[in-house]
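Here is the promised in-class demo. Please do not try to memorize the tokens; focus on the logic of going from shape to residues.
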């Protein structure tokens, strides 16, 4: 492609960029941190359209960045992610402050040969900037609040490099189509099913657009699995065309059953009318403008045959626009009760055993807006976790049009209030449990009670020297923590720094602090087990010496979960010093053994479908900040001193707790900084490398089955990246 007829903004190479002499404007990066300094000449403060185009032999999208220096040097807090597709002009709305001191452009973080064709800033009037931001938010299925500060943050989320590792269309083409296009294989498989359940698709309609109604009904009638019925209840639509279309389909196919309500009763009553004519073994819920892919019910029937005790079945889903374009795929966790209490992640496609629907009386009037969520919560009381089945395939296309919750949760503001009521009723028999709105629309926070007689918490902090960081950690706990019934067990492991030793003597005088001596070679597991035996508390906290408290309620939040009888380990949200995420739950198999999900996301980022903002279950959490009841700690014999002296002992411990029948919980409401292994150093000699490799081997051999697929992650997401991006 030839150079576009645009001027290049003033730029000069400053780091890891070598010019390629054979072509003007061509560069070769020589490391993972190349950047240009950009001229401030001609820039106007305010809203600007940044444009960039480069050519490269790479076909993959490139993650670039703009950095703005306002007097405190270049940092992540003042940066903009730029997604570049080679050969295509990329545009970003950016806001330039009046006190800008310097500007920098990082074209990539990889070794790359490229030609820079366009690099430009064009001033935008606020009106045009607002329109561009709003359009991008709406087309991405995010929430538009009509507040420029909030909307700009959401706009920036659309361009996060964590979202673009694999294009969804490419994933559909290379991962989904090879399976879904082989219809004959599905038909052959169905011939072997010993169980052929009848599935009733129930659907309320009201003034549905003809185009979408026909697409919806056709998607049901074109299913590869044919033992179905479509039960439609029209909620007294004023548009007579809806009645005509439904009548037409009922005449064409006997599987279409229609009831016309004489009065409008809203969605719960209308869906119950559809349920009244359903005769299937299972009930699938479908909205009147959404679509099912042809293999959807085949996958449901297959899941029932593989899990005859299935009571509730749910699948992955995506969104579909007016033109039929698919986007916004949600690849879900397997059964994750604490995530469900935080948001209705199960959503579509939801399929229920008809007997359970009948037992709970169908949909409940009074929770419209979250009626599916309420139905699910009530159904849970009639089945155990073995009867809840997740199918990791996209079996539902959710129509994203104006007024739909698929497009913007904020367009139906009553849904959050309805969800709170559904949860309050679900927990009505749980004394002391309260519900409040979460950090995002349609998310919730369940507050678990702490007894009036608060349990003693023993916070175990191992250290070797590290005067400054250890003092910072302990001071922050003592000065900021609102939960008052705790003790700190500071475990000195052969410190020899006079300053540190003097501090240990001093802090030992504090009524909440006890200094213990562990005069043996470093073994993280043994140190914590040693201290746990001397802990007076009924709750143990494993705490690194390089953390710093942010939220004063951190310990109360963690304790409230640790006291729940079905919960084992509880972890916190931890940040690097630059306010990017260090820990937000551990994902098995990530990077080989286990890794931290959402690592390096910005502090205010929502994460994958809001998962950085909600309480949920993970297979493991880091022991940098981990709470667990002492009885559970002892039940699984603490940490593994023999095979995991340094690495992965926290993951192994969490998996032992998980295998003992408890759930592990991560909460974003307990926030701390984590300076990550400042005092211990790195694996920098052959002995340490050999020890680390043996610990890797132990984890892979001991937990091989769990590491094949983390149930709180997804087989469709990447195993070699920590950002919840699509798997290649």
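The designed amino acids, position by position:
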């Amino acid at each position: 492609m030839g150079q576009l007829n645009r001027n290049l903004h003033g730029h000069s190479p400053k780091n890891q960029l070598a010019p390629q002499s054979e072509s003007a404007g061509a560069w070769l990066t020589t490391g993972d941190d190349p950047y240009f300094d950009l001229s401030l000449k001609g820039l106007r403060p305010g809203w600007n359209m940044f444009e960039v185009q480069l050519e490269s032999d790479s076909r993959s999208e490139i993650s670039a960045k703009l950095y703005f220096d306002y007097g405190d040097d270049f940092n992540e807090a003042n940066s903009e992610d730029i997604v570049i597709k080679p050969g295509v002009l990329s545009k970003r709305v950016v806001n330039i402050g009046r006190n800008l001191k310097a500007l920098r452009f990082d074209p990539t973080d990889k070794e790359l040969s490229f030609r820079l064709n366009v690099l430009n800033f064009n001033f935008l009037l606020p009106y045009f900037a607002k329109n561009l931001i709003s359009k991008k938010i709406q087309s991405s299925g995010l929430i538009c609040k009509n507040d420029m500060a909030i909307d700009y943050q959401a706009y920036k989320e659309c361009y996060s490099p964590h979202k673009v590792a694999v294009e969804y269309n490419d994933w559909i083409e290379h991962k989904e189509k090879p399976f879904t296009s082989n219809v004959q294989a599905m038909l052959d498989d169905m011939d072997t099913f010993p169980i052929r359940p009848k599935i009733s698709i129930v659907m309320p309609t009201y003034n549905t657009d003809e185009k979408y109604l026909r697409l919806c009904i056709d998607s049901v009638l074109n299913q590869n699995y044919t033992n179905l019925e479509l039960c439609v209840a029209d909620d007294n639509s004023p548009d007579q065309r809806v009645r005509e279309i439904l009548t037409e389909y009922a005449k064409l196919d006997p599987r279409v059953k229609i009831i016309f309500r004489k009065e409008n009763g809203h969605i719960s009553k209308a869906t119950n009318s559809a349920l009244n004519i359903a005769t299937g073994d299972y009930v699938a819920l479908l909205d009147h403008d959404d679509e099912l892919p042809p293999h959807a019910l085949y996958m449901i029937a297959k899941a029932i045959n593989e899990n005859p005790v299935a009571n509730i079945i749910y699948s992955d889903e995506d969104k579909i626009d007016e033109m039929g374009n698919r986007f916004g795929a949600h690849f879900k966790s397997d059964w994750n009760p604490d995530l469900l209490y935080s948001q209705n992640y199960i959503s579509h496609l939801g399929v229920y055993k008809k007997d359970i629907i009948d037992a709970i009386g169908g949909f409940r009037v009074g929770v419209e807006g979250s009626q599916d969520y309420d139905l699910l919560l009530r159904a849970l009381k009639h089945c155990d976790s073995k009867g809840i089945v997740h199918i990791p395939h996209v079996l539902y296309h959710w129509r994203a049009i104006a007024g739909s919750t698929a497009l913007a949760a904020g367009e139906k503001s009553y849904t959050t209030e309805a969800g709170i009521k559904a949860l309050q009723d679900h927990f009505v028999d749980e004394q002391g449990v309260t519900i409040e709105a979460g950090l995002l629309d349609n998310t919730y926070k369940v507050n678990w009670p702490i007894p009036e007689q608060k349990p003693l918490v023993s916070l175990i902090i191992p250290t070797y020297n590290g005067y400054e960081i250890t003092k910072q950690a302990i001071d922050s706990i003592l000065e900021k923590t609102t939960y008052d019934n705790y003790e700190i067990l500071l475990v000195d492991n052969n410190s020899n720094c006079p300053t540190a030793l003097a501090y240990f003597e001093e802090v030992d005088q504090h009524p909440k602090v006890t200094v213990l001596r562990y005069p043996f070679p470093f073994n993280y597991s043994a140190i914590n087990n040693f201290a746990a035996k001397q802990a007076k508390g009924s709750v143990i906290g494993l705490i690194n010496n390089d953390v710093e408290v942010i939220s004063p309620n951190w310990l109360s939040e963690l304790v409230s979960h640790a006291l729940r009888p079905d919960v084992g380990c509880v972890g916190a949200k931890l940040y690097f010093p630059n306010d990017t995420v260090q820990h937000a739950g551990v994902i098995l198999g990530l990077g080989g053994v286990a890794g931290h999900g959402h690592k390096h996301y910005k502090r205010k980022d929502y994460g994958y479908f809001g998962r950085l903002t909600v309480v949920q279950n993970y297979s493991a959490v880091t022991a940098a900040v981990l709470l667990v009841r002492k009885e559970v700690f002892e039940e699984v014999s603490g940490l593994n001193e023999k095979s995991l002296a340094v690495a992965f002992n926290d993951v192994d411990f969490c998996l032992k707790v998980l295998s003992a029948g408890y759930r592990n919980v991560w909460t974003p409401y307990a926030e701390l900084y984590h300076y990550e292994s400042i005092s211990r150093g790195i694996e920098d000699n052959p002995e340490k490398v050999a020890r680390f490799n043996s610990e890797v081997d132990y984890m892979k051999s001991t937990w091989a089955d769990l590491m094949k697929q983390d149930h709180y992650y997804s087989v469709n997401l990447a195993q070699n990246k920590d950002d919840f991006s699509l798997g290649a």
